[in-house]
Amino acid sequence: MGNDQPCVQPQSQNGGKTCASSFSSASPSTTASASQTTSSSSNSPTNAQTLSTQSPTNTTAPPPGLTSSGVASATAAGIGIGCAVVGALLAGLIVFFILSRRNRRKPSHQHPGISPNNGGYMPQEKSGVTTTVANVDRLLPQPTEDDAMIAGLSKIRDAIKNHVQNYYHTAPVDPKMMDEAGLVELASVLAIPTSAIMDLLLNPATRVPILRLYLGHLILSRCSGQPDTTLSFLPSEVSALAASDSGAKATTAAEVALFSKWKTISGTLLQQRYSQQPNGNDPREASIAEALTSSELVLRPFVNPSIDTNVRRRNLEGIMRRAAQYAFLMFSQPSSFIFDYTRTGHPDGLVVFPALLITVNDEGKKLSPPRVLSEKEVVAGLGRY
User: Fold this and answer.
1) Contacts of residue 91, Cβ cutoff 8 Å, sequence gap at least 6
2) Separation CA 310–CA 315 (nearest Å)
3) Which residues on neighbouring strands pair with residue 356, listed in sequence order?
4) Predicted TM-score (pTM) above 0.70
5) Cα 200 from Cα 167, distance rounded (Å)
6) Could you give the CA distance from residue 202 to residue 194 in angstroms, rounded to a whole number?
7) Pairwise CA distance, residues 200 & 208, whole Å
8) 5 three-state secondary structure
9) Per-residue pLDDT at 266 exceeds 60
10) What secondary structure, in 3-state letters, does 150-208 show?
């Protein structure tokens, strides 16, 4: 036992003990004696005191994932990437700013309002103010389809036909009860004497188509502009100027185009207020009331006495409201329209409902001859006039 040496535990670089490793490399006999030596030495107070007083000389190694400065490697990588992104954004903004200033200084050879990309109208800056005048065409609605225009007029025609058949009689009438003055305008349009119209009304066989003719003319003549706004179903804001009908009477292509554009722009601005049938608060109601009063003087001798006259008036009033809506629809189109009562090819007949002709097309160009949109309705056998 005199050869036993106390187990000195020098620290390795990783802080572990080297004693165990030296024992493991010894021979079996040496290992056995060393075990006894260690066992006896561990019971010695001196050796225990020696071991307990030794302290490690090296600091604990940093945990995995930390740098020598104490910052995690993942955090360091994130900071690096963030700096790179911010730098790229700053560089991009600087380049964009430089290019924008260069483009503003570059003179433009394009016509004002024309986009070099698609040939369309684009707002341009003039004296620091952005204008959208060149974009007016894009702000306007598309013209109404021909089928819709025809259908709207057909509803008015059918409503007048049903009204006459339901509310008027074919019994004899005293000529003294008739209002000849109320037929003068219609006689002028048809180019026949007023007396001829009176005779047709007095004849029970021809009364119904002539009543249709009278009501159709009374209503449709108010679907265009009039100098006296109370005689037009159009809004008073546009009726007076629309009465000039520059689309049909203009002498230059420029006047025709300008009138077409004015109608479309005005119709768009007034659409929310006047695109529906008039109601109690609509200023067009005054024109409808005037038309009802005028019609009473001519219609009264032929009213069916068995039917409530208030019911008849409400029915006729509804037809006029529908016509007022249609009048605004026609006005708001770029095209211009006229009603035609010409009796071409029908020497013994009368036009009880006129044709609708287009005199100016959607492009604001005058048509010669006009294009027929809706055919006229002619009743034959009414005589030659």
Assistant:
1) none
2) 9
3) 339, 374
4) no
5) 18
6) 13
7) 9
8) coil
9) yes
10) HHHHHHHHHHHHHHHHHHECCCCCCHHHCCHHHHHHHHHHHCCCHHHHHHHHHCCCCHH
